[in-house]
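Journal club prep — side note

Before the paper discussion, L.F. wants everyone to see what a predicted structure for a comparable chain looks like in token form. Sequence:
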Amino acid sequence: MTDQDRLIAAARSAAKNAYAPYSRFAVGAAVLLADGAIVTGANVENASYGLSLCAETVAVATASAQGRLADIVAISIVGGLMDADGAAHGTDPIRPCGRCRQVLNEAAQLGGRDLDIRCGGITGDQVEEHRLSDLLPHSFGPANLGPS
């Protein structure tokens, strides 16, 4: 199994842990670290909508909590609508929102690399492959703030 296949599988597994009672849209994310380790995240909604967390942000924050923020080399994101039983379905690929693209950009710049992004649905074989620089052109990040 390739790293890309492992990432999609890990993101799909993570989506099962989504807490999405308001949107009923489960999202899972999996980040690949430089040593081959995978860290996952799922979206966590809140009744105060602005406090909700995207799956990508949860995965990146988990990697950061492990001291591995600069080690992120790739991410896979999947999502789909939840049925009445809480199971998510959907074959259309989803892409990271603008906020998550900026969060990913911070990790990418810290690591000195462009990230590979794979987008899929909860089920199905359709997967899109992107580079972060294509999804967030002309980005702003740590490099724009001058020497640290």
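L.F.'s comment for the group: The chain has a mean pLDDT of 95. Keep this in mind when we get to the figures.
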